[in-house]
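Dig into what follows:
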Amino acid sequence: MSTCEPIQGDPDFYGRGIRIGVYLQWTSAWLTLLLDPESAQGVLDANSVFVFAVTIATIIASRREAAQIEIYIMLQMLLGFHITTLSSFGIRIWLMTPGRVAKLLRRAAKEWKKDRQKARENQEGIMRDRQRAVDQIAQSVANYPGLAKWILAVLNRFSTVSRSGSHSASSATASVAILPVHLLSALKFPGLTWSGVVWRTMTLGIIAGFNFAYWYEFPNSAATSKLLSDPPDICGPPTVFLFSKQLLQGPIVTLGYAVAIILLLVVGPPIYTLLILTVQIHYYGVLLLFRDVAYWVRPRTGERYSAAIDRINEVLRTSALPVMEAVQFYSPLFPAGMVAVEALKSSLDFLHFMTTEPTGDAIRFTDLLKVFVSLGMGKPSVRAAQEGEPVLSRADTTRGGWEPTGVAGSFLVRATTVLFNIYTFLSIAWFIISIELAIKWNNIEGVDSIDSTGQLIPFIIGCVSASQILKKIILLALSKKYPEWVDVQLNVEIGVNGPVVLGIDKPSGGGNPAAAPFNTRAPDQDQGRAIWFRDT
């Protein structure tokens, strides 16, 4: 595309300052998550906010019919964050060191055992409920022997169909919606908040959807039609990097479309699960708030209707609900039975909920606010603390954390972590090369200087992030080389006449804490500041 007229790029979208800032954020985030897992929440929050802003800007630019290659470059940046460093649940952080992989395997095995035990208990409960429903129908039609015999024969005939048909289908549906809850709960890295997980996952869903729309509409877009309608000796399709110089047409577009579909299939289940749970929590919040306000305005609302509602509940439970539950267990015969039973149960639950006064142990709207606070905090849960689950910290990457034992010391685990870090490094290099070559090959001008205000913010953020990770690397190297330096402490005290006195406490006698303290230099009381050194 070198013979085309130059494309005037937007420096506020992908100028040199922004690109350098993004590249530095990728590298610094990778090293920070590797060396300091305690800071994972802050790193992911900062990157996710930047990614969300770029996502909105990219969508707006696409609606203004920006050049296809410009949208492609922006998508490379957005996908680059998620493929290199930005992790929704923190799975990438687990795979960075052997100690973390070992802990992940233990957690996954524990959750799998609990899930299997719960599945067996649920299956036993289903069989008991089904038998109870059959018995109730038999009692209801006991006065009509012919009808009872026919109904029981039909139910027994289709019980196998029900178990292997509707139950299997419902189990498959439940697996899509419920299994990720157990799986993702175990995979979430300690210290990450669930609110942050939802935020990053939804942002990834927006990017995946926009990426799919980009590749789906690419052949039929106005910009592409204009490019392809020009004479071949004047212009042609955009050029991109895919192991070599490739034209963005034909097989490359098909490949991008296929990858976009795969990405949707991968991120779809967790997005669906978290979205359903989020909507359900907010729905409960509306109900709780409505009930609390209703009882605050009219405190004796429940007493007025409790007697009538109790009679309605009794009639429904004894007459309608048993028969409809039996229909539900044999839904291949009565497809509408499932909907009818669920609607009836929901009505009963709602009536009971509205007649329960929000006092004592009843759940109130303020309790839901406490849940939001808990989900927004990254602290370990009380259950995890009671079960003795250790929380990963910097100790996992310093001193003894570098010499894994047990499962973490196996060759397979160590090789996995090494390969994963190599993959991360190569992914960062890939996206940098892809973006830079796309700008060069497609003759995009005006984006190779740092002369606009919009480029300074990501550029400065990237430089500061790089300096912070460089500081961490130096400190970790020094603490590895001289472990006794970590025990040196700085004390700030006030002298007799008010001066600020700085004291350095350092171990002596090979780090023996029992050594008697002594002052090597007394503080000067006549000066505003003084310093002394003390061995402990």
User: Anything to note?
Assistant: The first strand starts at residue 7 and ends at 8. The two ends are 71 Å apart (CA to CA). The first helix runs from residue 11 to 14. Residues 157-179, 222-234, 390-405, 510-536 have pLDDT under 50 and may be disordered.
